[in-house]
Amino acid sequence: MAQKTVLFKHLEQPEIHRLDVYRDAGGYGALRTAVNDLAPAEVTQMVKDSGLRGRGGAGFPTGMKWSFLPKEYDTSYLVCNADESEPGAFKDRELMERNPHQLIEGCLLAAYAIRARHAFIYVRGEYLAIKELLDAAIEQARQAGLVGERIFGKDWGCEVSVYRGAGAYICGEESAMLDSLEGFRGFPRLRPPFPAVRGLYGKPTVVNNVETLANVPHIVANGAEWFKSTGTEKSPGTKICSISGPVNRPGNYELEMGTPFRYLLEDCAGGMAGGKSLKAYIPGGASAPMLPGDCQDVGIDFESYPAAGSTMGSASFILFPEDCCIVFAQLRISEFFSHESCGKCTPCREGSRWLRQMVERIEEGGGREEDLPILLDVTDNMVGKCFCALGDFATSNIVASIRHFRHEYEQHIRERRCPFRPHPAAEPLLQIAGVA
Ligand SMILES: Cc1cc2nc3c(=O)[nH]c(=O)nc-3n(C[C@H](O)[C@H](O)[C@H](O)COP(=O)(O)O)c2cc1C
Questions:
Q1: What whole-number distance in Å separates Cα of residue 337 and Cα of residue 104?
Q2: How many A from CA of 433 to the centre of ligand 1?
């Protein structure tokens, strides 16, 4: 298992963002096949058979999600989640920047499968240039009859609109995203009903991540069996991994699911910079629990990371070198969650603030012995008690960092100071990761 390019195949063709180049490479062929030869339910079945799982973090089976829509409805919507606000994640950005038509074709195929006539791409506020690029690509596709009414002359048509968020992490959560799209402040909705039943404007809606949708043209073009021949049995396909921190070649790498993290670090990213050793790493952005640096043989897939005590999430790897203070790193993570809590649910709003304040106190030398059990008690009172997973996310690294690096917290409390100050490595690392 190693590098394999499916979604990043276009890296060999720098002009692939142009419609003519994309079409010469076979682009929009899958859409043509689907619209001309397949019923919408057949496209859903194909995606179901492929075993494709959502790349936005939770790994929910994509075809199954599409089949949750009611049998009868007049209007439905497809929403592409391009919010990409998870610290450490920057894969969707490259997918959209390098090959916008791959995503547009994926959106159209998903819309066709659920009989939607309008697809929205919700792009994070900071991705202004990407919004403009997508708008231009959609316009090219419209001129070519690939977007709008009567696609390929059939009586199905689909509009594609790009909507720019305003830079709130919570709007990456699918139900808050729907509120935001409707023009309200992004707050998570209580479920059930799930978006598949009552979503955008109260209509059946599918929300999928950029990478998930970018896989769909390849599945329709090559078949479910082809897709399943890559990766592991339960996590088929490839995964685009973002790796950041003090490594020699940070960036995005597309790997076969199941490839060990060690391969990503050593063979793709060129190992740790300056010959330092790896103290800890987070495999799935700030919301996934950190693991000790020696956990390098874990396969990058949806099963192996939970077995190792973390989650793959969106495969956004943030690395911490030997001289990084874990309490300081945790403080940056806690600051992020306390800032991004939308405030709707009390356990998350108050809990994330308490966690930040306590970690700050420990880092500043004012920690008390009883702080560690109190920190863990606060996390207990947050997990599973909020409308969305942000409350859980705010706790995962508190628990993991105390589990694996309790001695560092204790040293801070005992010595009444941070033994790592000044923080040579953590500041730039966390800035790159978007946490600082
Ligand atoms: C606080 C929070 C932030 C999230 N941010 C993102 C995001 O930036 N991008 C994304 O695709 N999914 C994000 N998700 C997950 C989405 O709610 C949703 O599960 C996902 O878009 C579904 O797509 P998929 O099935 O294709 O993975 C977030 C979830 C939570 C709770």
A1: 32
A2: 18
pTM as predicted = 0.96
Cβ of 57 below 6 Å from ligand 1: yes
Nearest 5 degrees, angle CA 427-CA 433-CA 164? 130
| 256 Cβ closer than 6 Å to some ligand 1 atom | no
CA dihedral 54, 60, 61, 66 (to 10 degrees): -90
Q: What's the chain's Rg over C-alpha atoms? A: 22
Per the prediction, the chain carries an average pLDDT of 95
Give the domains, in start order, of the chain with CATH numbers: 9-228 (3.40.50.11540), 238-321 (3.10.20.600), 326-419 (1.20.1440.230)
Residue 423 or residue 112, greater confidence: 112
Does ligand 1 have an atom closer than 6 angstroms to the CB of 341?
A: no
CA of 240 to the centre of ligand 1 (A): 16
- Chain position carrying tokens 């990456």: 172
> What residue has token string 């628990």?
399
Nearest atom within ligand 1 for CA of residue 62: 25
* Segment 212-271, tens digit of pLDDT: 999 999 999 999 999 999 999 999 999 999 999 999 999 999 999 999 999 999 999 999
